[in-house]
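Chapter review: from sequence to fold.
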Amino acid sequence: MIIIITIMLSMFFIRLVFLKLSIQNEREILAAGGREYGKQVSKVITLLHILFYFFALSEALLRKVHLDIVGLWGLILMLFSIFMLYTVTRLLGKIWTIKLMIANNHQYVDHWLFRYIKHPNYFLNIAPELIGVALLCHARYTTILILPFYMVAIYFRIRQENYLIKCLILPNGIQRK
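The token string follows.
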């Protein structure tokens, strides 16, 4: 049980480190004349992420879950998600934020990861992270109750991002990486 709690607290701490980076980038983007879009969807996604963690850990505590093969697969997915989050933040640099922010003269980052996996932060970071947390904590009720709402919120976020890429980012040019 203590292993599950330690892993979840570690993941939460890692998320806080990336949140700090996001806040720093957000301030710089806004100070340079950038703008935030999709504020409501960002708030919903943040709330759902916190709820998912809280209820998944609650399920683990109530069931007295121990690390087993299912939980180990969850941990592997969580580690993969951290690696992908790190990769995406390095590729996007100062324009990476948790929120939907567009910098002045924001250019499209043309890297194979963004070419072949349109939204790697959602499909290679958030999805594996949530599935990993669910497996680690054996959180079936959390998954059944919260994940569908999360998927809808991500759908709206991706629509917003696609629109902004087409209308605001691509006209500014392409930055090859």
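Two observations follow directly from the output. Residues 126 and 162 are 18 Å apart (CA to CA). The first strand starts at residue 35 and ends at 37.
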